[in-house]
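Pasting as-is:
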Amino acid sequence: LFHIDDFHPSPHGAYLQGCVLHWTLFRCAPDCKRLSPRELWCNARRMQPPNDDELPVPTLNEAEYLCDVAGAVCRDYNDICL
C-alpha cells in the first residue's frame, strides 16, 4: 500500500485512504462502479521517481475489495465507538 519510499501511498493505498475517508464522512460506501480506477487516475499527479516505472492503479476487482475492507473497518470502529 506504500510507494517504494515506504512513506507515500501507492495508488492502491491512496484508493483505500479515499474509501476510508468516504465511509468516515458519509457512513456509506462510495460508488466504486461509477468510475473505474483508471479513470480516477487519468489526470492525477503521481509521485514517481524519474527513472522508475509507474506503479499500477487498482483493477476494478481490487478497488471493490479495498472498498469492502474500508467498510468493514469503519463499521467495526463505529460499532465500538458510537
